[in-house]
Amino acid sequence: MNLTRTLIIGNSGSGKSWLAERLAKHLQVPWVDLDSIHWLSDEHSIARPRAEVLGMARVVASEERWVIEGVYGWIISELLPRATALIWLCVDDDECVANVRQREAQRDKTDELLIALLDWAGSYRTREDSSGFSAHEQLFDGFDGSKLKLRNRTEVTTFANTVLQAN
After folding, report:
1. What fold, for 5-162?
2. Can you say whether residue 28 is alpha, beta or left, with left for phi > 0 and alpha for psi between -120 and 50 degrees?
3. pLDDT tens, position by position, 68-82
4. Distance separating alpha carbons of residues 124 and 128, to the nearest angstrom
5. Cα–Cα distance for residue pair 12/99, rounded to 1 Å
6. Contact 69/32 with Cβ under 8 angstroms?
7. Residue 167 in this model has a pLDDT that exceeds 70
8. Minimal CA–CA distance to 32: which of 4, 60, 73, 3?
């Protein structure tokens, strides 16, 4: 699999950042989380203007080597022509929700942003926007480069370990 320019897509809590960080470190390439481009604030409450987001994403993707991960299909679709590999973390919604709960355990369970994130992760297969299951499936099916669909955390971990041990 040619991982020179790798895009990782999937639901919130699927393990995109976990995998991207390890791949980028192993490959010695930049890692970009599309949340850092899409949102103005760390609290994920104020989005950047769409044109600005796409401009920033295109600049990142113009580099020769990278790992970029995110849930935003509308951004990913712009970057696909530059990608050499697409990895879809197609993890069950319930597992993603559990992962978000674990990752955000320090937050107050009544935090409105946490509740919204949990609802978001739990609705992946029913969302009809560019960040939902069917949009990701279309991106994956339409991609002509190297691609891989990982269906659970065990497959994600096994893939990461295989790549990390390859060199």
Report:
1. Rossmann fold (3.40.50)
2. left
3. 999 999 999 999 999
4. 9
5. 9
6. yes
7. no
8. 60
